[in-house]
Amino acid sequence: MDVTKKRLYCWSCNFEIVLIDKVVREDTCPGCDKYLRCCKNCRFWDPMAHNQCRENLTEYVPDREKANFCASFEIREGALGASDEAAKAKARLEALFKK
Q1: What value, to the nearest 5°, has the Cα angle with vertex 58 and ends 56 and 60?
Q2: Closest Cα partner for 41 from 94, 69, 78?
Q3: CA atoms within 13 A on the CB side of 83
């Protein structure tokens, strides 16, 4: 039986981490020692969204790179570079309509 394991890519160094269990607040990246349970590793993090989060009911988090207790945290799929490209394209599109 082939078991598909979840993979997390560190927001800071793109180090690939195979997850055995959920990510807890104290977990850090083996590659760069940055926190893994933070906004920048969450699938809802969006620097272009209000409060930098696509989840409407979250509390404000002043530092997106620090560990937090957000109840909406879900692991972001794929490396951060892929979502950065989407954010850049969205920013260029929005810039076209500004006066």
Answers
A1: 115
A2: 78
A3: 18
